[in-house]
Amino acid sequence: MSTYEIKNNHFKKKAINLAVTGAFIATSGLTIFTSQAYAQTSNVEADNIDVITVTARKKTESIQDIPGVVNVLSTAELRANGTGDAKSLALNTPGVIYSETYAGASSPRITIRGVGDDDFNPNGSSSAAIHVNGIYQGTNGLLNGQYFDIARVEVLKGPQGTLYGRNATAGAVNIISKRPDIDFGGYLDLDIGNFGTFRGEGAVDLPISEDFLVRVAAMYGSSNGFYEHLGTGPGTDYSYAPDTITPQENVAAQGSWGGADRASARVTAEWSVSDATLVTAKLTLGQDKSELAIPDVTADNWAEYASSTAFFLDPQDPALIDFANALDNDPFTVYSNMLPKLDSEQVGANLQIDHEFSGDTTATVLIGYESLDRDYTTSDNLPFAVADYLFNNDFSQFTVEARLAGQYSNNASWLVGAFSLQDKIDFGTNLLFLNSGLWQTDVQTDYIQERDSLGIFASSDWTPVDWFTLEAGLRYSSDEVTFTGQTQNNDPYGVYGTPPSFFPAGQVYIGVPIDPASPLVFDESLDDSKVTWKISSIFTPAKQWRLYGTVSTGYKAGGFDGSTILSAQEALPIDSETVIAYEVGSKYRSKNGLVSAEANLFYYDFSDYQSTAKLIVAGASTNVRANVSDATIQGAELALTLSPIDGLNIKAGAALINSEIDNFQGEDATIEGNDLPFSPDVSWNIAVVYATPINDNFSLRSQIDASSTGEHFQTIENNDQVDSYSIMNARVALESADWEVALWVRNLTDEDYNVGFFPTTGLTPDTFLKGAPRTFGVNFLKHF
Fold first, then answer.
1. Which domains does the chain have, with CATH numbers?
2. For the chain, which residues score pLDDT lower than 70?
3. Distance (Å, rounded) from C-alpha 38 to C-alpha 614?
4. How many Å apart are CA 524 and CA 522, to the nearest integer?
5. Is 134 left (phi over 0), alpha (psi -120 to 50) or beta?
6. Which of 3, 211, 414, 632 has the fewest CB atoms within 10 Å, i.e. the most exposed one?
C-alpha cells in the first residue's frame, strides 16, 4: 500500500467519524422537528395507529418500545423483492451485507454492522444467530431451504443472548413462517422470468377442528442460470508435462450454467389443548440440486496471475497463450474443467409448547432437530486442473430451549431460560492439486466435529415512572467441542513436501508436507465458557418520542479451522471472540402515524477477533483460521418512514460504518489498521410505494426501490476491494380482493456487482462471484 493510500485511508476514517456524529445529530433534530410539526396536524393518539408489533424479545410489544434496532420485513416487502432467499435482508436493511461462498446461495453469509464471517466452512459459529421459528440454525446452509411462506423477518442488531437462543456478537435474524388459519383457504404465488426463471410457492389451511389446525406449504424454484459455460476451451488435452503426465479430461461447453433446482415443503399443526396451552409442531423437508456459479477469470486479472505462477505454468505454453487471447471482461462467460454442482437434502422437525399460568406467567418449551446432507464441487475458475475441491458433509443438530416469563408487578417483568445445543458434522474434502501436473495429488481431509453448547439466561425490566424503563440481562454460555480426523496425501507419484523456498516470496506454500504412507492424524478438543450481560434504559420525554442507551457484551464460541488440514498446528483450537458494545439512539413516531424516524450511534470493541489470515505454519505461509487481532467498529444508522399523501409510502434507511483492525497477530504487519471484511463505509436503501384505486374492484400498486453498498473488502488483507454498487428494482401490480398480477424488473440498470470473493491461493487467481444481471418477468398471486 502506498503512503498516499495510507494517508487517504486515515483521512477517510476521520471524515466518517465526523459524518457519523453529524448524521446522528441531524436525525435527532429531525425527530424533534417532526414531533413539533405533526403534533399540530392531528389529535389521534399513536396507540390507535397501525403500530408495528414484534415478538423479537419473546413478548409482544411495539417496536417503538425496544431499546435497540429491530428491522422488520413484512410478507409484502419480501414478495416485492422477489428474491425468495436471504438476499432480501440486505435489500431492505441498512448495515446488513449478503454474500455467498463456494456453495453459492445454499450457504449465505450475513454480516450486520460490519460483524460477520469470512469463513466458508460449515463447522464454525456464526456471528449472526439465525433462528427459524424459534430454532437456532447451527449452519447457514439450513437457511434458504426454509425461506418460504414467511409471515415476517426480524433483524436485531448488536450482541444477543440474554433472551433466547444462542449467543451472538453481530445480532440475530428471526424468520417466522405463517401460522395455520381457522378457515379453509390458501394462496398460490407464481413467478416467471427471463433466464428460464420459475418460482412457485403456495399454502393451504386445513382446519381439522376448532382446536386442531393444519397448514401445508411448498416451494419450487428453477432457472437456466445466467452464466455461459465454454468448456475447457484452450485447456483441451492440456498436460503440464505432456511426455510423462496424462492429459486432463476434457469438458464440453455446457451453454447456460448456474441454474437453480430446489424444492421445499412444510407442514404446520397447531393444537389448542386448552385455553391456556398451545402445542405447535412443524416438519420441513428440502432439497437443492442446483448448479453452482463459476467465478470468472477476466482479461484484467489474468496477466498478474500468469506472471506470479510462471514457476509451474509456462507463460510460453501455447495453451496458456490461447487462453489469454480468448479471455474477455464479460463476467458471465467462463471456462472451466469442472462442472460445480450441489446436491443437498435437509430435514427439520420442531415442537413448541406454550402454556399460560395464572398470574401472567407463561412457559415456552422448544425442541428441534435439523439435518443437512450436502455434497458439492467447486472449480478453480480455470480450464486447467490446478486446484479443484470436492466437498461432502453431513450435519445434524438437536436443540432444547425452555423459558419462563412473568411479572413482578404492573411495572416490572422477568424472564429466565436455558438453551442446549448438540450438533455434529461429518466432513470430507478432496483437494485435487495440479491434477495433470508434476505434483499431481489428491489431498483428502476427513474429520468429525461434535459440539455441546449450553446457555442459561435471565432478564428483567422495571418502569418506576411512566417516562423511564431500566432493563438488565445476564447469560452464562459454555461450549465443549471435539475435533478428530486425518489428512491423507493420495499422491500417485510419491512426490511430496515441496520445499517453501521453491516458491516466490509472498506466495502461499502449495507443497503437501504429508507422506502418503503416513497420514496426518489430529485429535483436539476445546472447552470454553463466558458470562455476558446487557444493561439498557429507555427515556420517554414525550409520548411519541423515545431515547435509549445500551451497553452489552457478546461472545462467539471458539472452534476449529474446517478447511484442508496440512499440519498439526492448523488443527489447534481457536479461542472465543468477545465484544463490548455501546449504543445510544432516538425513536420518533408522529401521533397520526404519518412519520416515524430513528437514529443511533454504536461502538464495538472486539477482543480475539476470529478471521482467516496468512500465518506461518510448519515454516511456510498459509491461510488458516485463527484469533488474529483486536478490532473496533463505530457507526451510525438512520431510518425514516413517511406517508405524505394517501396511498404513498416511503421507507428509507442508511448506515455509516468505520472499522479498524488493531494489534494484528499474523505475518503481514500492513494489515494493522485495515478495514474489517464486509464493512462498507456507507450503505442505504429506499422504497417508494404508491397505491391508487382504479374502481371499486381494482387498484394499481407501483413500487420502485433501490439499495446501495459502498466499497468494501471481503478479507482482512484488504486486497480484494469490492467496488460500490447500487441495485434498483421496479414493480407494477394490478390488484383485486383475491388476486394480483404484477410486472417486475430486478437490477433495472443492469449493475455489475459482486456477491463473493475467492482470494488467490498461489495456485489460482483472485476471482469474484457475480450478482445477477438485469432480470424481468411476471408474477401472479391468487388467494382462495
1. 3-296+331-783 (2.40.170.20)
2. 1-59, 235-248, 300, 304, 306-315, 434-440, 492-514, 516-517, 616-621, 759-764
3. 56
4. 6
5. left
6. 3
